[in-house]
Every structure is written in C-alpha cells, then in structure tokens.
Amino acid sequence: MRNDPYVEGGVRLQKVLSQAGIASRRAAEEMIEDGRVQVDGQVVRSQGLRVDPDRQVIHVDGERVFLDETKHVVLAINKPVGVVSTMSDPEGRPCLADLLMDHPERLYHVGRLDVDTSGLLLVTNDGELANRLTHPSYEVPKTYVARVHGEVKPGVRRRLLQGIELEDGPVKVDSFRTMETYGEITTVEIVVHEGRNRLVRRLMDHVGYPVRELVRTHFGPISLDRLQPGTTRRVKGNALKALYSSVGL
Question: For the chain, is the Cβ count within 10 Å smaller at the N or the C terminus?
Fold first, then answer.
C-alpha cells in the first residue's frame, strides 16, 4: 500500500512542477529526490508520483506552488471612509459590493474596518485563507497610521507595548512609533495582530489621544502601496505566495 499522496490517473509531479515554471523536468526530479517537495503536507521522493493539481496542495522549499492563479482570487481594496465592510447593508449605505461589481466570484471579506476607518481590506474566494488570516492563533500583523490630537509623550509607547486593560480584556501592540508632529496633530504608526472591533481607536482613547483619522496600510505581507481610495488590486505572484505562507497554506 502506498504511503504517499498518490492519485490514480493524475499527472506526474515533475511534469506539474515543470508546467508551473518551477524548474525543468530534470531539475524537478532532483528537487523531489532531495526531499524539497511536499504534497498535501507530506514530503515526497517518488519520481512516479501522480497528483491532482486541481485539488492537491504542493510546496517547494516550503513555498506554495500556484498552478492556476486565476482560481485563487485575492483582492486588495482601499476602503474609503463611509463604506461599511460587508457585502450588503440593510440600511442602504455604501458597502464592499459596490466596489466589487467587476468581480463576479463569491468573495469573503477578511475581517473588517469600521465605517470611519479607511485603507487596506482584503477579499478572497478562499474561505480557509480568510479564516486563517483572521484567526488570532496565526497572529497576522496589521499596520495602521493614525492622526491624533496633541504631541504624544514617550511614555505612551511603553504603556502600549506593555499592555492595556480594555473592557473586553488586556491587549498590547506589536509596535508603536511616532512618525511626525505638525502643530497640534501627531501621526503615529501602530501594529497589532488582534482583530477586535475598533481596537486601535479604543487603545488611543485609553492613553488619552483620540484618533482623528485612521488608515490601515498593511495586512500581513500585503501593502496598501499606491492603491487609490475605492479601487482594487489583484494580489498575485510573490505577494500571493507570501500571503499564503504567512498562515501556513
């Protein structure tokens, strides 16, 4: 009985790797022989292994191999202020569906941004990816830039890094830095990995610096970059691989 993830009538693994542009068939055979290839989480060394590239997950050197990126839809959205992070809204407010009219796939939003916060939001047709990106056990970092009232004192950073007790439990930031102070407004960068409702706003309220404006600039390895408000960008190539890798997929 075979112990490897063999699929009757499937495609030879080295051919799949070659078609994916990973390496020539000969080089792919050497990768398999060296134990650098995994199928469904199992290291394989059999040169005759046949796989189903449509349903099996293949990694080379720990990096996900995407045989058809068109099936793995991940979009970055720059959500404007005033748009709710749902696919529909019973009150008739602008929602994510209004920004995704050119994308007929069934898409899941990865977490939320409150209606007054703008910036990076991800949507995907991969439910498992969405689940892992939002599950606290994977500790995916989210980066925010906030404009707050007043000049932020040095002790604020220490308090936030050590931890704050909020009404729904303790929380501490992954990192905090002051970017600039202009007049009575200070711009700060905050990195957290939790996804509690209005977390950054509540943290800054707690330390005495209410947020005037809040933008999320990064979600894990994905950056807002130059994406304009109300527009989307397809996540693909190395960015897509990095996103899957960040949650062990």
Answer: N
Q: Which residue has the tokens 């220490």?
A: 158
Q: Which CATH architecture has domain 141-219?
A: 2-Layer Sandwich (3.30)
11-67: which CATH number, 3.40.50.970, 3.40.50.11720, 3.10.290.10, 3.90.660.20? Answer: 3.10.290.10
Q: Is 80 exposed, middle or buried (0-12, 13-18, 19+ CB in 10 A)?
A: middle
Q: In this structure, how many other beta carbons lie within 10 angstroms of the beta carbon of residue 213? A: 14
114 is catalytic: yes
Q: Read off the pLDDT of residues 172-186 as tens digits, 9 standing for 90 and up.
A: 999 999 999 888 899
User: pLDDT by residue (tens digit) across 226-248?
Assistant: 999 999 999 988 898 889 888 88
At residue 22, the pLDDT reads 78
70-98 pLDDT, tens digit each = 678 899 999 999 999 988 888 888 998 88
Task: Tell me which of 114, 116, 205, 225 is the catalytic residue.
Answer: 114
CATH 3.30.70.580 describes domain 70-137+221-245: yes
Dihedral in degrees, nearest 10, Cα atoms 16, 21, 24, 30: -70
